[in-house]
Write a structure and sequence with these properties.
4 copies of one chain form a homotetramer.
Chain A (H helix, E strand, L loop, with lengths): L3 H19 L9 E6 L4 E4 L15 E4 L15 H10 L5 E4 L3 H8 L9 H6 L12 H5 L2 H15 L9 E4 L3 E6 L2 H24 L8 H11 L10
Antiparallel strand pairs in A: 1-2, 1-4, 2-3, 4-6, 5-6
Helix pairs in contact in A: 1-7, 2-6, 3-7
Chain lengths: 235, 235, 235, 235
């Protein structure tokens, strides 16, 4: 199954996992990044429980979008099924990342969505970063990691959140998942999410009544960087 | 437009931007520093959205004090108009810096001015570091970055704050702007502001009723370092 | 008393102490790790008050399980008797670590057990990480370090906690002890404990009413990594 | 005035200042360490406002215990008179350090003494680390830095605190001073003070009602390391 496209996918996923590790968002073997090749319905993902320092092109695992493992040897990340639900639900994403980054996890443990309290937040996330409901006992008993993906998907559909404008979700009691057009963007969003979560946490700690910024200011900042009228950065 | 003065201005601004980056006050491409040449009404500033690691003399952007871009190629920082209002309003400053540094931003998000709670604060900032009102919808819709500068200017004039004794302002829901006699001082003030903001935050967290230090003690510390009777440091 | 087994034990203990030091869980000369050779009833442990940078195979101290010092020269860690009670009480452990790591110590000082608030916790600790009662005056006066071990042992037996599923204890007003199958695992658990303690602390700070996660979710995560049905990692 | 004793004193003071800088307890030019030669009533101290990276034997300043500057060139630290009061009041100390270290300063700004909440504290500080009253207007106007020293001295005598068992004082609204048998110990105490202050801060944040540990436990830990019955470390 070795070919150029697969190799390129593995390279992107390997690089994104290493970037995740360097960014201090993961501890030990926690966390994982995957990437998808949409033409071929293939996903490359970190192997389960392997030390980041030992990651290489060779131990990246390939699965198809139904979860079938296509490489021999190592098991994929135990969170693989969650990634697959996200690829199947959010049709235009190309990469998914999962971390236990400190303040995103703390917000998830505290069951707190992160309302938009500042322009740093609005620059990257359009409105409140949602925290899911607590997963049901039924879902835990059934197919836990698959159901975690369904929980994220349902949170977005029930609350009418557009996954292209909100590339992160806090899973209650668990931690964050992020995504983007490719594995590198998923990791970048994980990094921004952690800083935004930290600033959200401390802002609410000193001012518990603080409500979201007004919509006009969120719009100004988000659309300064996104969409056809964006004017941040270079053409 | 290449000449020695422009080159020197660009050098100072480049160096100050790199110092800002090294000081861990900015994340990703956030933040920017500018400097002015008052004789020629020219401002050098960081280009918008460019990675700090890729900054060079060549990509520094020159604008005049009316906002006209005089170099070809890159767009200036999206916050350029805010900088220009500050240069036009505060006639003796030579440099401006903007960051999303952690605790200054958190205070700004929490809509909290930083009252003077300790001598570290009083050594550099004469009294309360102001946080602006929330920017009006009208100002957001009009010319947002220009209006942000006006907001800072008005905060200082309405509250009778001297920009030479208070070289920082927290913009509500947004983050800090700082200034000084040159770009290097603007960055230095950003660094002190961050530490002072952090200490202010934690002091109020453990003692929410804590009021400002008394004026006699603020005066003693501020004027130990500033003005004609200063006795800190070497002659 | 020099022989191969002793040398191997000392090597493991030295390496684990150095790892503890590198992990930033100890300050100055605080903290210590030991290991046991069960066949020979011998324990190797860090010498008391010696700088981590000066540790070597030569200055590791050997004691038997009754506390008799068998090497000449240096005194063993002042906490040695606590370690010995743990080896004598928890029959299958092979290593013990003691730190003053920041947030584990803060929880112990605040007299707070760490209830299970997230999956990161449940991945490594099966339920609430216990904090002991405050040690009695009688125990302090008698044989303090021995009694500290007894306190941990009694906490586990009175609360029906299995030391194989809960490899850490917070000693009230003091700090954490951890253990594992060998000195390296004891240190690894110290590291996870610190991160979990930090996340527990901040979660409760922002949501003081937060109760433990439900048992179904704890079970799912703990047994995903432990026991005969574990499916995390590689076979 | 160059001779061997002076040179040795300067060397100790230089080294202690550099150690202070490396320990991240000072920002910019804040903070200072001095040492005394009791036979000759001479004190060596950091020059005022000089960057730590530019410190050398040559720019250490020598003053006598009455405050007369005996070296030519640089002014001594603006806090010199505070140091001198401490040398004149606490007859057996050999070094003094002053920092704006983060959590010691935060406690001082919050006007909080640090009661003894854990064994880490009791290992180095015998009981509550005192925070002074706010300095009077009269003292501020008169001879501020001298009066700061008097404030510390009076705090210790009024509260019957032994400066040999409590080598630190938090000056209200200002920050910590520490001392020891030589400049190196003063710096060491500054480092321990910062960690103990941080742990004190967070313990009280999560458990505001937390009272001091009981005296029996303080005694056990303090005298395990200090005095004629100490059994920590090596003989």
């Amino acid at each position: 199954m070795y070919d150029k496209e697969i190799r390129e996918l593995k390279e992107k996923v390997l690089e994104a996992n290493l970037e995740l590790y360097k960014s201090n968002l993961v501890f030990f073997t926690f966390g994982n990044v995957s990437g998808v090749n949409r033409q071929r319905n293939l996903v490359a993902i970190k192997p389960s429980g392997v030390d980041y320092k030992k990651l290489s092109l060779k131990n990246m695992v390939i699965v198809n979008l139904d979860g079938k493992i296509l490489t021999s040897g190592l098991n994929p990340s135990s969170d693989t099924k969650t990634h697959l639900v996200l690829y199947n639900s959010f049709s235009e994403i190309g990469g998914v990342a999962h971390t236990h980054s400190r303040f995103a996890t703390i917000l998830a443990q505290a069951l707190n969505s992160a309302s938009c309290l500042g322009t740093t937040h609005a620059d990257y996330f359009y409105g409140e970063i949602p925290c899911t409901q607590i997963i049901s006992d039924e879902a835990i008993e059934k197919d836990y990691e698959h159901e975690t993906g369904i929980l994220i998907k349902n949170t977005f559909s029930e609350r009418n959140i557009d996954y292209k404008e909100m590339k992160a979700c806090l899973v209650a009691s668990h931690g964050p998942f992020t995504w983007g057009k490719d594995p590198a963007e998923a990791v970048f969003i994980s990094k921004v999410l952690e800083e935004v979560s930290l600033q959200n946490f401390y802002t609410r700690l000193i001012n518990p009544q603080k409500k979201s910024m007004k919509k006009t200011l969120i719009d100004r900042h988000y659309f300064r960087k996104h969409g056809k009228n964006a004017y941040y950065g270079q053409k």
